[in-house]
Amino acid sequence: MTAKILIVEDDFDIQTLIKISLSNKQLGKIYLANDKLEAEQLLKNDHFDVVLLDLNLKSENGYELVKYFKNKDTKLIVVTAKDTDLDVYKGFENGAVDYVKKPFDPIELAYRVGVHIQSSHTHNNKNLKVNLDTTDVVIDNEKVNLTSREYDLLMYFIKNTNKVVTKSQIYEHVWGYSISVDDNTLMVHIRTLRKKIENDANNPQLIQTVRGKGYIYRG
User: Fold this and answer.
1) Which of 50, 73, 108, 194 has the greatest number of beta carbons closer than 10 A?
2) Which residue positions does 4-aspartylphosphate occur at (predicted)?
3) In this predicted model, what pLDDT tens digit does every residue of 168-192 receive, in sequence order?
4) Got the DSSP string for 173-197?
5) Is residue 203 packed enough to be buried (19+ CB in 10 Å), middle (13-18) or exposed (0-12)?
6) Domains of the chain, CATH where assigned
7) Residue 98 — φ and ψ, nearest 5°?
């Protein structure tokens, strides 16, 4: 499962430095925002595991972006030249889990981001939230009950986010069969899973059929 990281930074050189340091560690998929408006659009449309936020965004209040976080599992790391104790305290009061002062060591920053990604044990995608520790599945803040097979099927899709998986691959990894025994079995399970986690099971946005190839879980 690939982590999503948003860098909100209006200094191109620093933005590039952070991106390179995180990319070298292969910590996840990296998104960039040059100002608060760009960051708002990204945060409204997607969930991010970690947000690296510069507070000096053309005199704008970077903390206003916190309200656009999809849920409380997003880890906010403040990266800024503001370094008074009051600034640090304000950062934590606004939900930050870490505070990095400029100038910073890019390697250390990458390690800090990695630690916060590893401490996250939830999968979030649109209105779906899965607690990987407790196996709880939540849709729009309402818990849904999956059968053991449905949960295993969902986990296989999540582990292969944005990859086309064939019916044979699904049977092998979820059912334990080396070949598909009954296509109808898989179709029934996917249909019931879609009814439980999709807003519209007839127009699925998460688990989509790829005609002639199999299925893909969009993340």
Assistant:
1) 50
2) 54
3) 899 988 988 765 556 788 999 999 9
4) III--SS-S-HHHHHHHHHHHHHHH
5) exposed
6) 4-120 (3.40.50.2300), 125-217 (1.10.10.10)
7) -160, 160
